[in-house]
Amino acid sequence: MVDLKGQYTKIKAAVDAGIANVIDNTAFINGPEVKMFQAELEQFLNVKHVIPCANGTDALQIAMMALNLQPGDEVITANFTYVATAEVIALLKLTPVLVECDPNTFTIDPAAIEAAITPRTKAIVPVHLYGQCADMDKILAIAKKHNLYVIEDTAQAIGSVYTHANGTTAQAGTMGTIGCTSFFPSKNLGCYGDGGALYTNDDKLAARIRMIANHGQSVQYIHDEVGVNSRLDSIQAAILRVKLRELNNYAKARNVAASYYDKAFAKNPKIKTPVRASNSTHVFHQYTLQLKGVERNALREYLATKDIPSMIYYPLPLHHQKAYANATYSDEQFPITLDLCANVISLPMHTEMTELELKYITDEVLNFCK
Questions:
Q1: Which of 39, 149, 201, 330 has the most beta carbons within 10 angstroms of its beta carbon?
Q2: Per-residue pLDDT tens for 288-319?
Q3: Chain-centre distance for alpha carbon 216
């Protein structure tokens, strides 16, 4: 699904030099590489504060802790997403409120958000799914109307650019109260281990996030509140500095591959290709098809015999997961989500795809979907 070895080969000299430098200076935690990466990512995103942390799930948890959300507070998020988004809500004994997604972009539906708001609602967590932004103008307007926080989950969309109705643009993760991302190796900006970060333009909130991520201390051995231990190590930061310089080129390469897929599948009525939102660029963390009248498992098995990997993101809605089951939810509330869970399939998508590989993959998919 992702050719990390091929990608590494092209940047090997710079990555190896960065790792060697960290080992040579032995500043393994919060060393110069972490501080430089933080500053460079702030510049790339045009955001005042980037606070690196250990992983994307930690980023979401720290964000909710920093906003002082209390047990029983309701947090609205998408039913069609990876479990981590809801996991941290439940872990903090907040109440996850799951809502429907848009049938075209598969991102959270603003109308469903508005319909789910109650006096206990405190925050919205839009997920920028598969590589493009949710409809942030509408989401931000709803948040302003109801005085809600917005925590952007941008683990799949770093580098995606949103165009507001007034013509201004913003990077994914920089529009809400806090943005959260993951640097898991397979992400568009991925390290060679675990890593994550939070973004905000609020000075006081940034200071609180840093304190919480560092055991609840702003001065060493003085702990003002309960925090966590969540940090990005210097070796990972050194790798991310190299890859950040390539991020826009990586997005272009992914879009070239996506366009090839689009053209190849355009005339097949059994295959719906991804819809690009008019107000967001797409960085194609995943290239996800929606099948119509095709036995998905049989297609996956067929592709596997041809040495073509595929994945399903996601096979179950959150309200079908035992950990998040709730009697207040019914399948009738989520027809779009259920349809997607039954029919989506993601094909290989990465920065090193060749035309020969793309032709082989598309020929075999089309051969099955006659």
A1: 149
A2: 999 999 999 999 999 999 999 999 999 999 99
A3: 26
